[in-house]
Structure formats: C-alpha cells, structure tokens
Amino acid sequence: MSKRLRSSEVCADCSGPDPSWASVNRGTFICDECCSVHRSLGRHISQVRHLKHTPWPPTLLQMVETLYNNGANSIWEHSLLDPASIMSGRRKANPQDKVHPNKAEFIRAKYQMLAFVHRLPCRDDDSVTAKDLSKQLHSSVRTGNLETCLRLLSLGAQANFFHPEKGNTPLHVASKAGQILQAELLAVYGADPGTQDSSGKTPVDYARQGGHHELAERLVEIQYELTDRLAFYLCGRKPGDSVHFLSSLDLSELAKAAKKKLQSLSNHLFEELAMDVYDEVDRRETDAVWLATQNHSTLVTETTVVPFLPVNPEYSSTRNQGRQKLARFNAHEFATLVIDILSDAKRRQQGSPLSGSKGPRPRPGPQRSSANI
Q1: Is the pLDDT of residue 171 over 50?
Q2: What phi and psi values does residue 308 have, to the nearest 5 degrees?
Q3: DSSP tag of 17
Q4: What are φ and ψ of residue 10, in 5° steps?
Q5: Residues in CB range of 109: below 8 A, 6 or more apart
Q6: What is the rounded average pLDDT of the residues 39-57?
Q7: Concatenated DSSP letters for 229-293?
Q8: Span 208-225, average pLDDT
Q9: Annotated domain spans of the chain
C-alpha cells in the first residue's frame, strides 16, 4: 500500500478491525471473513484485491483509499444511517456475527440487492432517469469529488455515456481536467479509453494535449489491461512502460497457431471468451493470494472457497456454464488456452482490430451489471 493502514480503519461491512482487502468498485476496505462473501458474489458485484499482497497501480489504490476515507460506505448503507432503521430491526453485521448466514446475508443485501442505497423517486421512464444521471456524471468528473460520482454510478449513471450536446464522454472530461482518480473510477465502471469524441479524439489524446502525461500513460495501461494481465499470468512479466504485449511479444514462438475453433469465432464472441478467461485468471490469482494469507486458518473451508466463476445474471446460461467450465482446466491446459487467446488477439488486431481489445472494465451497476471489454 502507499501508506500503512491506520488502526482506526475498520471493515466496511462488519466494523471488524484491520481490514486487509479492498472492494475496488465499491470504494471500501473489508476484512477476511467479509471478503470471503464478496468473492462468492463475482467480479460483476465486487472486485476484490488484497491491500498488501496484490500488485496495485498506485493511482487505483489512491482512488480506493480516497473513497474509503471520505465515507463512500455511506452510499451502500444510506438507509441504515436513518434512526428509523434501528426501530425496524435492520442493522449491519458486526464482527461477532457468523459468516454464514449473518454476514453473508447482509453483504448480499448491501451489494447485490442494493437494499440500502438511496432510491430516486419513481419515474415512468427509467431511461430518462439514467440519461439525467449520466449528464450529471459528465459534469461532475471535472472536479475531484469522487464520492459524488460513485453515488451517481450507483444510481445508474453510465460511465461510457456519450453526451449528445458536448460530443464526448465523462472520461474525456476527466482526462481534459487531469482528474486521474476520476479516470480510475470511470474505468472500473466500464469507461473505454479508446472511445472517440465527435472529432475523433480519445481520452488519451485529451490527457496528452492537456499536459497530463501520467494520466495519459495510465489510460494506455487500462486500454491493454486484458492482454497485459494474461501475458503476466503466462510469462510472469509485464511489458515496458509504453510497449505492450500485443506489439512486444511474438506469440508464434509460444503457440504454432490459434485453434481453428477460436479463429472461427466472431469478434464479439471472441471478446466475450477473452473477457471470461481474464475473469478466470483473476479468480485463480485471488485464490492463490487468499490461501497464502489465511495460513490454513478456519477461514479456509468449503464455505469460503470459490471453486469456479460465480453466475452473472446478465449473461446467458450457456455463457455462464462455459465460464464455470474454465475451472476444470489444469494449469497446462489453461496456459495453452491463454496462449491461444493472446495469439488470436494479436492476429485480429493486425488484421481487423477488435472494437473492445482494450481490456476488460467490469461495470457493476444497479442490477444491470455486466463486464465490458
């Protein structure tokens, strides 16, 4: 971490001391027990990272720390702050509660059902509400107020919203203003650094023109997150500062040719498969960190293991079944699949570029969550 956790910091879900994990998209720190529940929900609900044993881009960690320190947890527990909630018997979990069912039920209600989030007045047309929220987000990202933007995203604002009058997206605005932490938050929620404005310029262009070189470099990293992470998983190394996997590694030496079945997939289906493999890499790597940090404690039980990717209700049953089958691949089989994915990604980029070859940016939103590539 960029700084040592202070003793005053507690788990956002049960108030237990010394949280050692973060939920990146929720802007919270959580303890081991609560993290075990988060992991079972899936990355479309909560993207967890260990605070000390997982590599962090510095500004991504700074973004989460800022949200946590500025009270982002109140977004997810808004109604619980009302004294009337105590009278109704509703309360958050506490450290003494059992993981199952007490903490698990609370965490699912909090993040999966969004049971405690402030609700807007009912409108006849939800799309109008989403558009209004997205316009507010478009305006808010020019400032440093991360909590306001997270609140808007929690209510349904779209990180990739293209403003019809302004001719650009929230990420363009944040990049022009040099708001690197806002850019991190938008990227976590699905903003695409490769999206062009009405003049054909990307957020990377905006950052460079504004002299925000650190932000421009970070946006390029986000663009290539999928292939860079798969390469790191495969080879144990990451490309240099400005040279990324697709342009720096000759995969023909690693794989003779991508499988015919893989090559026959449409770009859309290939993007989905690549994103699913990315999620499986994340599951396997998080599992490794989880097991290494638990020291064979009582937490390492069947109820805390995540044996395969959790179901994402936004995906078809066929896709969810395919995602879960990835867990059956042994290390060698999975490495071969990763090689094939990277090889075909390179081929497609050189031939007919993928519209979404810029890396997965899961966008957990209010019950319409999906991971975008």
Answers
A1: yes
A2: -160, 170
A3: B
A4: -130, 165
A5: 115, 116
A6: 96
A7: HHHHHHHS----SS--HHHH--GGGT-SS--HHHHTS-HHHHHHHHHHHHHHHHHHHHHHHHHHH
A8: 96
A9: 21-57+70-112, 126-223, 226-355
- Distance in angstroms (rounded) separating the CA atoms of residues 133 and 119: 13
Question: How far is Cα 112 from Cα 46, in angstroms, rounded to an integer?
Answer: 9
* Segment 352-356 mean pLDDT: 46
Residue 361 in this model has a pLDDT that exceeds 70: no
Interatomic CA distance for residues 23 and 43, integer angstroms = 10
Tokens (6 digits) for 164? 């019809």
The single residue listed with the structure tokens 């009582």 is 298
Which pLDDT score is estimated for 358? 43
> Taking 60 as the threshold, does the pLDDT of residue 303 lie above it?
no
Q: Which segment of 12-16, 50-54, 250-254 scores lowest on mean pLDDT?
A: 250-254
Q: How far is Cα 123 from Cα 31, in angstroms, rounded to an integer?
A: 38
Token reading at 13: 């879900």
Is 99 strand, coil or helix? helix
The CATH homologous superfamily for domain 21-57+70-112 is Arf GTPase activating protein (1.10.220.150)
Question: What CATH topology corresponds to 126-223?
Answer: 1.25.40
Burial 245-266 (b: 16+ CB within 10 A, else e): bbeebebeebbeebeeebeebe
E strand segments, 182-264: none
Between 312 and 252, residue with greater pLDDT: 312
- Judged against a pLDDT cut of 90, whether residue 196 lies above it is answered with yes
The dihedral sign for the CA sequence 148, 70, 34, 86: negative
314/371 Cα distance (integer angstroms): 9
Q: What 3-state DSSP class applies to 363?
A: strand
Nearest Cα residue to 99 out of 38, 53, 160: 38
Q: Determine how many CB atoms are found less than 10 A away from the CB of residue 17.
A: 12
The pLDDT of residue 340: 87
Q: In this structure, are residues 116 and 110 in contact, taking their beta carbons and an 8 Å threshold?
A: yes
Distance CA 296, CA 301 (A): 9
Task: Answer yes or no: are the C-beta atoms of 25 and 47 closer than 8 Å.
Answer: yes
Look at residues 81, 80, 60, 73 and name the one whose alpha carbon lies nearest to residue 28: 73
Residue 10, SS3? strand
- The mean pLDDT value of the chain amounts to 85
How far is it, in rounded angstroms, from Cα 117 to Cα 114? Answer: 6
pLDDT tens digits along 115-141? 999 877 665 556 668 899 999 999 999
